[in-house]
Amino acid sequence: MNTSLTTLGNGPMPGPSPIAGGGLVLAVPSKGRLEELTRKAFTNARMAIARPGGARAYIGAIKGQPHVTVRFYPAGEIARGLIHGSVDIGVTGTDLIHEAAENGPENVVFVRGLGFGEADVVVAVPDSWIDVTHMADLADVASDFRARHGRWLRVATKYVNLTRRFFAEYGIAEYRIVESAGATEAAPAAGSADLIVDITSTGSTLSANALRVLDDGVILKSEANLIVSRTADWTPLRKAQLEAFFSVLGGVPAGISTLL
Ligand SMILES: Nc1ncnc2c1ncn2[C@@H]1O[C@H](COP(=O)(O)OP(=O)(O)OP(=O)(O)O)[C@@H](O)[C@H]1O
Ligand SMILES: O=P(O)(O)OC[C@H]1O[C@H](OP(=O)(O)OP(=O)(O)O)[C@H](O)[C@@H]1O
């Protein structure tokens, strides 16, 4: 697995930044698989993240980057912070940028994929729905579901916005979203929803719950990314700090130069 943040090799250990004052917020995932792999990626790039207060502390630092404050946030919060400009640089899943706002991708620069957190957001139905293999079949099911069952078709998901946009592309409007905070795959068997939209990587959670991805049901392919906010307040000082940060990672990436 390639967890390198650099494109041009690791380079020398960074010295103290010549720039004083101001400061950038670098947000990294506070828990789960993304936390561990993100920290490994920064360590590989000789930018090891220190978390002096331990696993429950929410502020960290990078040696040699005195103008960078590391904040540990849930992955979804990082996406929202990058879009709104309260986070300058962040690592999170691309799925969360797309889910957080329809114009989310326009408000950030995806600097590079990090080679982990690879997963697809998919539409999955019970294995027993043998005649439903494509979104067009689902559209047929949705259109007469209420007449047949006396209630709307229910979709369990935490990807409410991605679901609405994707279903609209197929003209599917007759359904209800059941917001799910976790264990979404359990919802159809538990009777709280008819189908789901969720993230999958190996597919084992879907098959363990007798669910199947529709043939054209991949909404998007996601990966952990190093991301820069376009909406942050890019004063000349902070732009210089951003350049200093990326100089350690092999140079300022092309997409960033439009900010500078
Ligand atoms: N099985 C998986 N394989 C690879 N990447 C995944 C997998 N599940 C989730 N991810 C990635 O990690 C991100 C965070 O997922 P996770 O399940 O840790 O979030 P959460 O705990 O539900 O959300 P939050 O961290 O915002 O509270 C996902 O949005 C996706 O980008
Ligand atoms: O396709 P799979 O490889 O089965 O992964 C999919 C599962 O991973 C995530 O959950 P979570 O992070 O709670 O699960 P995990 O750590 O067990 O993968 C996601 O919400 C799915 O439930």
From TrEMBL:
One of the Pfam families matching this protein, by short name: HisG
Entry's Gene Ontology BP terms: L-histidine biosynthetic process
GO MF annotation, one: ATP phosphoribosyltransferase activity
A GO cellular-component term linked to this record: cytoplasm
Keyword Transferase: yes
Reactions listed under catalytic activity: 1-(5-phospho-beta-D-ribosyl)-ATP + diphosphate = 5-phospho-alpha-D-ribose 1-diphosphate + ATP
EC nos: 2.4.2.17
The organism's place on the tree of life at top rank: Bacteria
Function: Catalyzes the condensation of ATP and 5-phosphoribose 1-diphosphate to form N'-(5'-phosphoribosyl)-ATP (PR-ATP). Has a crucial role in the pathway because the rate of histidine biosynthesis seems to be controlled primarily by regulation of HisG enzymatic activity.
Name of the protein this chain belongs to: ATP phosphoribosyltransferase
Organism whose genome encodes this protein: Devosia enhydra
